[in-house]
Amino acid sequence: MTVLILTCAEDVTADMVVLALHDLGVPVVRLDPADLPGRISLSAEYVQGDFHGHLSTGDRVVSMNGLRSIWVRRPGQPAAHATQQSAWLTAESAQALYGTLYSTGTRWMNHPVAAEQARRKPWQLHVAHHSGFAVPPTLITTFPRIARDFAARHRDLVVKSISGAHPGDPPMALPTTRVEPDADFAQVTAGPTLLQQRVPKRADIRLTCVGDELFAARKLSDDKEVDGRFTDDGALWAPAGIPARIAQAVRAYMSLTQLAYGAFDFAEDRDGTWWFLECNQSGQFGFIELETGQPLAENVAAWLAGRPAPR
Amino acid sequence: MTVLILTCAEDVTADMVVLALHDLGVPVVRLDPADLPGRISLSAEYVQGDFHGHLSTGDRVVSMNGLRSIWVRRPGQPAAHATQQSAWLTAESAQALYGTLYSTGTRWMNHPVAAEQARRKPWQLHVAHHSGFAVPPTLITTFPRIARDFAARHRDLVVKSISGAHPGDPPMALPTTRVEPDADFAQVTAGPTLLQQRVPKRADIRLTCVGDELFAARKLSDDKEVDGRFTDDGALWAPAGIPARIAQAVRAYMSLTQLAYGAFDFAEDRDGTWWFLECNQSGQFGFIELETGQPLAENVAAWLAGRPAPR
Fold first, then answer.
1. pLDDT on residue A231
2. What is the distance between the alpha carbons of residues B206 and B287, in angstroms, rounded to a whole number?
3. CA separation (Å) from A270 to A144, A152, A223?
4. Per the CB < 8 Å rule, is B163 touching A79?
5. CA Rg, chain A, in Å?
6. b/e string for B183-196 if b means 16 or more Cβ within 10 A?
7. pLDDT value of position A98
8. How far apart, in whole angstroms, are the C-alpha atoms of residue A301 and residue A289?
9. Distance separating alpha carbons of residues B146 and B148, to the nearest angstrom
10. Buried b / exposed e across A50-74, counting CB within 10 Å, b at 16+?
11. Architecture of the domain spanning B2-109
12. CATH 3.40.50 region(s) of chain A?
């Protein structure tokens, strides 16, 4: 039984997992949906209640009926490499590929339907509350008056993107930014704006959840720094223990969102409380593995292979 | 408690349901997401586990906490009417609107996550099989050899769009077309192609499912006609009885897909068997109501209002 990986050609994180799967002796097929049609061929038959499908790329053929699991890493847009590109061909190819793969009943990391819902940041805050995390007071608004009132109540604020990366090629990550004390918020009428009470932090926490396995890493932080992704002060990620309450909340969150993989970001305040900032269902883990030595790729591979976690 | 309807300005089907809701004395707010930001303002606060949101348009304000239900009819793309349009503003506005509405825990017809999955046609075939419908043998392929083999086995075929309407403004519906006996299928390498055994039919069936209520309509069909949407032979839709086996399969399908509304298309063959063709989770019902007199708008309104079905 084969593991199917959907990702683009240049993806070193996928390379790490492919190596780990080779070590486990598990067959892998790696495809970029951008190559359908073209380098990838697809066929699926629905006859009298039976479903038979297969995918092929070059000399490799994989039966959709014999899939062990599917890992959706960084797939390209279907038909993006086609000779005659069109929105129509992309729609048809996406339907053909994902519609047939949905019919397989295999295990997904993560199922695209769960992933799409889990990307909605405001819903993340809601699920985080229900899972038992501490969540900084947050406002999403187009009303200047309400923004001013929120600023008066919560004083020290940051503003951040609601949708994540700025669309573009390549997409651009937008830093979370501290709001100046004299901001007047008149501009929020131009687009919904997410304001959040700033957490005075002593460390950033990245918690990676792979199936049932949790790995936390801590990086000490200068409290002046707002978004650790955009500063390089020489601090390194180091493995961190996970409070029982946090582990419980992570499991509740994964269950409510039906995700198999999630990368959680927390801000640790001076009292040691971990404040939920976000959960990225496709968050990178290579840089954490590199600095902490935590066996993340190996755990992803074990989950995909359906083997016990290796640690 | 208010019903929220997300749809574009020109939507006579929505007009019918709004009237029916007025008759029930239920407050309604109707919004087009294209008007956010601009004519629509939005605010939502997540503080200490509580969620408080509201939407306003002109002089109307609706609390997200007091929503009776949400009907996703034909919503425009968020920010499509904004003064300064951009992919970025659309992404931020979509996140703000749908992400906060997902946090309400209200009833949806249909929830966008369920709708997105239910639009995948190959997955529809899979679910239809599992629900107990008769489904014509179907192939989706980029392999000419497999297409030829399927044609040899099933002889009389139609070819249809996998993704539905051709993208464009306005989108263009593509007719299902009979495959000529001498077709050579070499072109299927250019894009995944859906081939289906043609059902020799005596009638088209449209079954509309609104919550727990089922309404079927039959239109007699000349067997030469392949796609009833594109011919006008004067035949009218008339109410039809629903076989018990079909009613059971519809309920199974709605449960597996988590839809509250679905418009099923069947081909009725000479033996009276209803062959599943597709289920459109946002299918029109105005033309059926007009010709059959079935109270579809009234039933949609009752479902949205949380009242017993009126028939």
1. 62
2. 11
3. 32, 23, 10
4. no
5. 21
6. bebeebbebbbbbb
7. 96
8. 14
9. 5
10. ebebbbbbeeeebebbebbbbbbbb
11. 3-Layer(aba) Sandwich (3.40)
12. 2-109
Nearest CB to B43; choose among A88, A113, A143: A143
Q: What is the domain class of B111-134+199-311 according to CATH? A: alpha beta
- pLDDT category at A110 given cuts 50, 70, 90 is very high
Q: Is the Cβ pair A103, B122 closer than 8 Å?
A: yes
Closest chain A residue to B39, measured at CA: A189
What residues of chain A lie within 8 A of the CB of B42, using their CB? 140-142, 192
Q: Give me the residue from A122, A126, A146 closest to B96, CB to CB.
A: A122
CATH 3.30.470.20 in chain B: give the residue spans.
Answer: 111-134+199-311
Name the residue of chain B whose CA is nearest to A93's CA: B192
Whole-number pLDDT of residue A124 = 96
Q: Can you state the angle between helices B121-131 and A87-102, rounded to 10 degrees?
A: 30
How many Å lie between the alpha carbon of B8 and the closest alpha carbon of chain A? 20
In DSSP terms, B24 is beta-bridged to none
What integer best gives the mean pLDDT of chain A?
A: 92
Candidates B56, B65, B120: best to mutate against A (most CBs of A within 10 A) is B120
Distance to chain A for B235, nearest Cα, Å: 32
Write the class of the CATH domain A137-196: alpha beta
Indicate the residue of B42, B125, B141 with minimum beta-carbon distance to A192: B42
Nearest-angstrom CA–CA distance, A184 and A199: 21
- DSSP annotation of B46 reads E
- Tokens at A307, concatenated: 């083997």
Three-state DSSP class for A158?
strand
Q: What is the pLDDT of residues B197-207, one digit of tens each?
A: 999 999 999 99
Residue whose tokens read 């990702």: A7
Contacts of A113 in chain B (CB under 8 A): 113, 116-117
Q: What is the pTM of this model?
A: 0.93
The β-bridge partners of B140 are: A44, B194
- Name the pLDDT band for A172 (thresholds 50, 70, 90): low
Tell me the chain A residues in contact with residue B37 when contact means C-beta distances shorter than 8 Å.
Answer: 142, 189-192
- What stretch(es) of chain A map to CATH 3.30.1490? 137-196
Q: Give the chain A residue nearest B54 (alpha carbons).
A: A141
Q: B117 to chain A: which residues are within 8 Å by CB?
A: 102, 113
For B110-178, the DSSP string reads: T-HHHHHHHT-HHHHHHHHHHHT-B---EEEES-HHHHHHHHHHH-SEEEE-SSSSBSSSS-B----EE
B167·A100 Cβ contact <8 A: no
DSSP H or E segment with residue B227: none
Distance from CA of B297 to the nearest CA of A (A): 29
Mutate to test the interface with B, among A42, A46, A125 (most CBs of B within 10 A): A46
